[in-house]
Every structure is written in C-alpha cells, then in structure tokens.
Amino acid sequence: MVVSDLYGKEFNTSDFSNDGRPMVINFWATWCSPCKRELNTIADLYPDWQDETGVKLVAISIDDARSQSRVLPYVNGSAWDYEVYLDQNQDFKRAMGVNNVPHTFLVDGSGKIVWQHNNYAPGDEEELYEQILGLVSE
Amino acid sequence: MKKYLCLIALGLFLSSVLSAQEEAQVRGNFSIDGQYYQEDSAISAVVPDQQMALQGFGNIIYTKGKFEAGLRFETYVPAFVGYPAGAPWDGTGIGYRYAKYSEDKIEITVGNFYEQFGSGLSLRTWEDRGLGVDYALDGIRVVSRPYKGITLKGLYGKQRFNFDNGLQNGEGIVRGLDAEISLNQLFDSAFKDMSGQIILGGSFVSKYERDRSSQYDFPENVGNGAVRLKYINKGFQFSGEYARTSENPSALNSQIVDIPDSLDPLVGLFQYGQALNLNATYSQRGMGISFTASSLSNMAFQSQRNSGPFDSWINYLPPTSVLQTYLLAQFYPYATQPNGETAFRGDFFYKFPRNSVLGGKYGTKIILSYTHVQAPDFPTVDDFDLNRQGIEPKLFTWGDQTYYADFNVRISKKLSKKFKGSLFYMNTLYDNDVILGAYDYDDIPAQGTIYSNLFVVEGSWKIKRKTNLRFEAQLMTTDQHLQDWVAVVLELTHSPHWFFSVVNQYNYGNADGETLNFPVVSSGYIHGNSRFSVSYGRQRAGVFCVGGVCRVVPASNGLTISLTSSF
C-alpha cells in the first residue's frame, strides 16, 4: 500500500516502523471536527508521551483533491509534531477496514495491531495512553 | 515464546499492510443501517411503502503473501429514502470483488478497483458509502515501479453504474495510462544538492461508447489528457494540473448554451473542454497560508453520454469551497459547475504561541478562509457540427454572475484544564438559480441569490476525567429561503464507551410565519472497533452535491439504528 508524505515522496506502508517501540496510526481529515479535536488534544500531551514511552504517532489524512492543499498548512498551523501522510484515494483506509474517521490503531513493536478505537470523545486519549503504557511495561 | 504465541492468538495483524508476513489472514469491516419512518406532514416527511429501510455492506479481504483477494457484500432491502445519489441500488449481492498480486516492482489487479491519476481531473474512481457514490472500475489494472522515482499505471475496464442484486456495470469502456516521475529520486546524484523536490506527471484517459443515434454523429471515443507538476521546497509547496478533453457532447454540457426547441436537449455541445487547477501554500510551525486558483470549462467526463448527473463519473472536479460540518452550515453547500466556472480560495492558519498576549497559557488558534466562484464569460462561436451557436471554452473568464462566495473565521482556545471553546462566523453568497441546493418545505427550489450569516459558539467542559459535555449554539440569519434558524447541540460523552446527544434546529419567522422544530435525540455505545448508535427524531431535508448538481435527501421522521465494526 503506497501513501505519500506531505512533501510528495511516496512511502510504502510496510516501511512504517518505530524501531521496535509502539506506534499509533490515526486516520483523520481536515473536514472532520472530532478528528481535529483528538489530534489537537494529543498534540499537547505528545512530548510527554514520547519522553515516557518512545511512542510515535502517524496521522493518515484521507482528504481528497478538494481539501488536500489545506493539510500541510493546517498541520503546520497547528504546530503538530506527528508524521503525516496522505491517503488520497483512501486505498490504505480500505485496506485497514476503516469505516469512518477518526479511527485509531495501536501497533506494537513487531507491527501487530493490539488495540483500536473508532470515534473520539474527550478522555479517549487517556485510554489510548494506558494501552501504550501497557505495551511498554510488558 | 509464550508471549509470541499470545500475540498470534490476538489474531489482529497489519501483515501485508504493514509488514510482509506469509501467514494467510482475513480482515474486513461491515456496516448496517436501519430506519423506521413515521408520517409527519408538517415537514413533508417521506414514508416509503415498506415503512422501514435496511441497508448494509461487509468487506472481506483475504491475504497470503503476495496474493490478495477481496469482496464486498451489499444489501439494500430497500435503500434509505434519497439513497444512493444516482442510479438505484437494490437487493442483495456482491458489489465489488477483486484479486491482486503484488511484488516490489509490479502490482496486478483483476476485477474491481479504485484509482486516481494526479488530482483527478482526468481520472478518479472513488466511493463514498455514506453518500451512496461508487464509481469503481471493473477490469484490469497494472501498476509498475520499474526504477526508483518512476511509477507507471495502466487500466482498462467498465464502470459501476447501479446495483441490482449485484454489481451492474455501465456500457462505456474506460482506458487509461499514467506516469509519474520524481526527479529527485530518479537523478539522486545530480539533484542531491538541491533542496527542492520536483514531481512531474502525465496521464491519458479515453472512453468508448457506441453511437446509437441515427441523427447525430457522436464521437465514440473521447480522450482526456492531463499534465501536472509539483514543486516542494521546505515550507513552500506548489502544485498544478492542466487537463483537456476532446469533443464530448453529453446531456450535461447541453446546458452550457440554450438549445433551440427543434433540437433534442440531450444532444450536447460538440466542443472540447479544459481545466486548470493551481495551488500554492507556505507554512512554518504555527503558521500556514494557502492559495488556490481553479477554472474549468466543459469538463464533465462520464463513461455514459446520457447518464444522470450523479452517474458514471470518470474524473473528479472538487468544489473550491471549504467543507464546513456545523449543522446550519449544511444549508448552502457549493457544487462545482462542470460546464464552467472561475474560482479562487485563500486560507490562513495561525497559532498565537503559548504565554503571548493573545495566546494566553495554552495558545490560541485562528483560521481564516475566503472562497469566490464566478460564472465564466465564454465567447460564442458557431457549433459547426450542429449548425447552431456554441461557445469557446476559455479558462479564467469572468462573467457577471457570482455563483458562490464565503468568508469564514474560526478562533479556538483552550481556556483552562477543563474548558475549551471556539467561535465561528461565516458569511455566504449562494446563487440558487445555478446551484439548486436550497429547497423549501414543499420541495420547491428557492429563487435567486441567498445571503446568509452564521454565528457559532462551541464549548467543551471536562466534567470528570473521562466525562465531557460539548455544546454548540448556532444562529443563521438570512432574508431569503427559509429565513432564520437557531440550532443547539448538547453532547455528553463518557470515554471510551458511551455518548448521548440532544440536538434541536428551530426555524423561526420564515416568510409563511411558520415555526418548526427539528429535535433529535441519539445515544451510542462504542467498543474498540465497533460502534452502535440509535437516534430518534425529525431530520431536516438535507442536500448532497456532486458534479455540479445537488440532490435533496427528503425530510423524515423516525427511528434510525446503525452498527459498524471492523475485524
């Protein structure tokens, strides 16, 4: 499955890795309010999460040609530190069985999905972090 | 070892998606929606003969090594009122199936597939199950990456048209080639000192459809060629695509000029079409700016000449306006006019840093956006094929009419550990004679141009660690259409499982002196990758626009249930 980064470079999703540490894969879009609430909330906690667990968050935008040009300025304008990729015709979303956004996957160090959550309600980020801590302490 | 077995027992792998494993796996997702309809004459609610509707789908994907196969069961017994967008979907069967083999340098798919060339001006086959849109191709596709930096694609197939106890393809045949080259990856030694990235691409798509007319000599093969360029240098990004179609008379483009009574209105205009889309953005941490200019003329490219406005689209012409998701912002959505328009948009994103005067303790975000879409002013020429008047499809011409304009601004701020809030304002100009997206309660389109103002206050209060209350208060004022509205949204969530919401939209003081409430209560339970929800109440007529036309999803009253899951 091929996605592209915000600088036009193609990436094979099988190359996603975090050197054996946990990784969060989050599907979002610039037009999706709960997605932005989730990623903006995590953005405030992210430096601490990284320090404590070494987790990496990969944000997959499913924006199409209508809103794709807003992704990079939105990401920079929001001062996010995530790795962001474009899944412009939703091939990766289809392959991952995502019905609607936001949809969050937690992947362990060996590339296996160990937890996933559809939708976002404030507080969900704490559940996600507990899961990440659970992986690190194993 | 025990731990490893344990992980296998979890049975959830990214495998071929994330890493190449040899074990066979099955994964997928499904969705089921049901609705029970009630009579409600005040809002002209539609009740189907069956009283109830149920629709759903399930995707199953099987992977083993380099091989993958998938299919989607679909069921519409019957479909919801106003669903899908175009030709009917009815019954139960298989709507999508494929087999795929992929290696490092080549990938071959037979059966159904979705594909996009460039930004989609020449080809984008896509799906949106929520809206009822599915333009899947059915045939063969080969993607090759023969050398670093080069991607080649070729495809050949028919296109999904409707669903009748199974996939039904339309008559037209679609063929396409696409090439994309990343100069930096290809010539890495020569470009290694260059900080910018250059990506070039080109595509050619052609459709074939038999000419069944005894009266007119319709072109059976219609081509569409496009070239594109992307240049990225640190925070600066530029992308552009130009596309041109050959002579392409269709039911849609017949509306570009008034057709004399003696001619069949479906004859169409024998003329080429073209489109140019330019984007430039500059951003750095905490700041972003983006500018779009887009113009198109006679660009409807469908695989069937006389298909409806929602069917058989080969290319994709995105609206230039920004999609807003507030309830009252859904009233006046713009629809791209494939017959011709000139559009501009500018966006500005800024985050006032923490501990600054305007940023406060947590920082403050502001987003400004302006969109303007103008009618084209095409020079008239004779349409020699039909001996009547036609047009010359020039780009970036400026007619007298403004089709659409909106200005919007949003300020969001975290006020304390427990409170967050946003303010939103939008001013919209909407030419309903052209866009036809606004209807009254008797389903009669509103006349002329609608000017509206929308104000939204949104807040979020974290009551307890995992319990949150979110509210929206919205006010929309306009002297046209249904006039003024107020909407209130209350949403209580208890993470990670429960949500409960109450929504009311209130139309007060419209021209008939009517006042109407549209209350809806919903509740849902989320467990990991599954979500179940129930809602009851009055749904306002909604609007859905694609390819230049809007369709009204009629008002309804009743009970809706929904279940989605993935595995």
Question: What this model shows, in words?
Answer:
The complex is a heterodimer of chains A (138) and B (567). The model of chain A has no long low-confidence stretch (mean pLDDT 92). Chain A contains four helices and seven strands; from the N terminus they run E-E-E-H-E-H-E-H-E-E-H. With 138 residues, chain A is an alpha/beta fold. Chain A is 33% helix and 25% strand. Chain A has a seven-stranded mixed sheet. Chain A has helices at residues 33-53, 71-77, 91-95, 124-136, and strands spanning 2-5, 10-12, 23-28, 56-61, 83-86, 103-107, 113-118. Chain B has 567 residues and is mainly beta. Chain B contains four helices and 32 strands. In chain B, the strands form five sheets. Chain B has a 24-stranded mixed sheet that branches. Chain B has a two-stranded antiparallel sheet with strand order 6-7. Chain B is globular. The model of chain B is unreliable at 1-16 (pLDDT under 50).
Helix % of chain A is 25-40%
Which class best fits the helix and strand makeup of chain A?
alpha/beta
Profile the largest sheet of chain A: 7 strands, mixed
Largest sheet of chain B: 24 strands, mixed
- Gyration radius of chain A, rounded: 14 Å
Q: Given the structure, what is the number of helices of chain B? A: 4
Distance between the ends of chain A: 30 Å
Give helix % range of chain B: under 10%
Distance between the termini of chain B: 25 Å
Tally of helical runs of chain A? 4
Structure summary:
The complex is a heterodimer of chains A (138) and B (567). Helices cover 33% and strands 25% of the residues of chain A. Chain A is an alpha/beta fold and 138 residues long.
What's the structural blueprint in terms of helices and strands?
The complex is a heterodimer of chains A (about 140) and B (about 575).
Chain A: E1 2-5, E2 10-12, E3 23-28, H1 33-53, E4 56-61, H2 71-77, E5 83-86, H3 91-95, E6 103-107, E7 113-118, H4 124-136
Parallel strand pairs in A: 3-4, 4-5
Antiparallel strand pairs in A: 1-2, 1-5, 3-6, 6-7
Chain B: H1 2-10, H2 15-18, E1 25-37, E2 52-64, E3 67-76, E4 89-102, E5 106-113, E6 115-117, E7 123-125, E8 127-128, E9 133-134, E10 137-144, E11 150-164, E12 167-182, H3 183-186, E13 197-208, E14 221-233, E15 236-245, E16 273-284, E17 287-297, E18 340-352, E19 364-374, E20 380-383, E21 388-391, E22 402-414, E23 419-431, H4 432-435, E24 449-462, E25 467-478, E26 485-494, E27 498-507, E28 516-527, E29 530-539, E30 542-546, E31 549-553, E32 556-566
